[in-house]
Amino acid sequence: MNWNDKRVVVVGGTSGIGLACTRLAAEAGAMVWSAGRNAERRESAAVTLADHAGRITWAEADVQDRDSLSRLFAAAAPIDVLVLAATGTERAMGPFLKMEMEGFRRSFGKLWGYANGIQTGVPHLADDAAVVMVGGAIARKCPPGMIAVSSTGNAIEGFCRALAPEIAPRRVNVVAPGLIDTGMFEALSEEQRQGMFEQARGNIPLGRVGQPEEVAAMILAVADNRYMTGTTVDVEGGSLLP
Ligand SMILES: NC(=O)c1ccc[n+]([C@@H]2O[C@H](COP(=O)([O-])OP(=O)(O)OC[C@H]3O[C@@H](n4cnc5c(N)ncnc54)[C@H](OP(=O)(O)O)[C@@H]3O)[C@@H](O)[C@H]2O)c1
Fold first, then answer.
1. pLDDT 10s digit of each residue in the chain, 242 long?
2. How many CB atoms lie within 10 A of CB 238?
3. From ligand 1's centre to the CA of 214, what distance in Å?
4. Cβ–Cβ < 8 Å for 151, 99
5. Is 87 in a helix, a strand, or coil?
6. Residues lining ligand 1, CB < 6 A?
7. Structural class in CATH, domain 7-184+212-232
């Protein structure tokens, strides 16, 4: 794709993988609408990407608030590439048999957020647009205590496969990251974060956690490929290998 002046929307674009997408798309010449809920996070993202200020519109949107999504999409239409990267909700952790059902249900908020993004976004897509949803490789290899996150990831991959024929010739795919060093872990202390990454390294053949740009590059590549739809691409350092 020639990204010059393409219209790209990144929901969940103010941190981590979405922020890296925003940067790579703007660097490639696209006009980017990048959205999240938190004003401070948007301001900090705008400072980080100040070099691309003319190409990026920072917008307020919550994937659980369909009106905010409709406003965002209407402003950016006709959209060439829609990236859904919002975490969307808190997730329940721990063994399923001890899990509050409400917490398990709430964990699917990421799926409901993406579903909102698709229903409100598709009417604003260009005819040959591409949608990329950020899933999680954990869908297919669930560590202890992560069953709610893993189940949601599976639901998103299934949703993508089921949706692809309905929105064709527009394309929709999932990019599924492994463990990536992003703002998702900002609540941890630096020591806790490094400890968690150190422990994880043993299960990652490439021996390190991933960087947001490594996932973002694949999101743009998948959006660019005109003969892919309904599929999932993993970016996980080999962690799904047996
Ligand atoms: N990092 C990993 O190891 C990893 C692994 C597998 C999958 N993923 C997936 O990758 C995606 C991106 O995560 P990340 O690691 O880049 O996390 P991150 O750095 O925390 O970024 C999350 C982004 O989503 C936005 N967001 C969260 N809830 C939202 C909502 N309800 N409406 C709109 N925006 C919302 C956040 O901004 P606000 O909070 O201001 O709204 C932020 O811009 C997520 O779907 C996550 O599940 C991450």
1. 899 999 999 999 999 999 999 999 999 999 999 999 999 999 999 999 999 999 999 999 999 999 999 999 999 999 999 999 999 999 999 999 999 999 999 999 999 999 999 999 999 999 999 999 999 999 999 999 999 999 999 999 999 999 999 999 999 999 999 999 999 999 999 999 999 999 999 999 999 999 999 999 999 999 999 999 999 999 999 999 99
2. 12
3. 15
4. no
5. coil
6. 11-18, 36-38, 41, 61-64, 85-88, 110, 113, 134, 136, 177, 179-180, 182-184, 212
7. alpha beta
Predicted TM-score of the model (pTM): 0.98
| Burial class, 102, CB count within 10 angstroms (exposed 0-12 / middle 13-18 / buried 19+) | exposed
Atom of ligand 1 nearest to the CA of 17: 16
Interacting residues of 228 by C-beta distance below 8 A, sequence separation 6+:
171, 173, 222
Domain assignments of the chain as residue spans, ordered by start: 7-184+212-232
Spatial separation of the C-alpha atoms in residues 213 and 101, rounded to whole Å: 35
Taking the CB of residue 158, how many other CB atoms lie within 10 A of it? 14
